[in-house]
Amino acid sequence: MPSPLPYKQAQVISNPVSGQGNGEGVARDLTASLKARGLPTELCLTKRAGEAQEIAQGLDEGVDLVVCVGGDGTLREIFTGLRERASGPGSVRVGVVPMGTGNALCADLGLPRDVDHVLEVLQAGKFVETDVANVNGELCFLIAGIGPDALVVQDIDDHRHGRPLSKFSYLPAGLRAFWKYRRKPLTVELDGEPLPDAYAQVMASNLIHYGGLVKFSPDRRLDDGLFEVFLFRDGGHLTVLIYALRVLLGLVPGGKIEMRRARRIRVTSEEPVPYYVDGDPMGQTPVEIEVTSVRFQLLVP
Known about the structure:
By secondary structure, this protein is α+β, with helices and mostly antiparallel strands. The protein has helices spanning 18-21, 23-36, 51-57, 72-81, 104-109, 115-124, 148-160, 170-180, 237-248, and strands at 10-14, 41-45, 65-70, 93-98, 127-135, 138-140, 143-146, 187-190, 193-194, 199-205, 209-210, 214-215, 227-233, 257-262, 264-268, 274-277, 280-284, 287-299. α3 (51-57) packs parallel to α4 and α7 (148-160) crosses α8.
C-alpha cells in the first residue's frame, strides 16, 4: 500500500484543452489517485483566462499543495494567485504536470508527464525554489522578451482563434513576423547602469531551455535573485535572421549576442516595441523588469 502523501489538502488546477485536449483526462486521473491515497483533493477545470489565478488566490488556508495540469501560461496564473503564500507560514508547494506547447520548465527540470511518476514526485516532496520577476506589474517566472520574437508571440495570439497550439504554429508566425519587422533600436539599463549600445532584441530569462528546446543558459540558477539578460545588437532583417539561426542552433550567447546577469532591467525605445511575458503578449515599451524577493517552492524529481 502506498505511503500517505505529506500534505493536508490539495488543489488540482487544469486547463482542459492543454496537451492537445488531454489536460482534462490527466487532471481527473491525478485527482482520483490523490484521493485514493487519502489526500482531500479538489479539481478545477478552467474555462477562461485568469480563472486559475482567481482559484489560487482564493484557496482554503488548509491547502498546502497545488498541482498545475497545463502549460506555462496556466502555471504563471497559479503563481500570480499564490504570491502571498509563496513562502513562510501557510506556504504552498506547487507540482506541475506539463501539458503545454513549450513546457520550458519540463525541459529544464525533467518534470514527468504521466500520473504515476507525478505521484512519485509529490510523495518525495523534494523541491527547488524559483525566482520570479515583476514585469510592468505582471509576474514572470520564465522569460520576458522585447523585440522581434514578441512579434512572433503576438502573431500566434492573433491567429490562434481558440485552437490548441503545436510547435509547428511557430513557423508561419515566424515568417509573418520576419516580414513585419522594422528596425526600432532598444536602449537598455541594467541595475542602474545605462549600456552604450543599441539593441534589436532583449530577453530577460530564468531558463536553461528557450521554448523548451534550445539550450540558452545551462549554468543559470533558479534562486540567485538574478535573471540572465541576452542582448542582441541592433540590426536589420539580415542581422535578425542570423540571430534566429544562432538561437535555433544553440549558439547563444555568441557573435553579436551578449549575456549578462541583472536584478533590474529597463528597456526603452523612441518608437513603441512589443514585449511578451512567459509566452503571452503584453504590450509595448517601456519595460521595467525587477526580480522580486518572492520565491516559489516547486516540486521536482
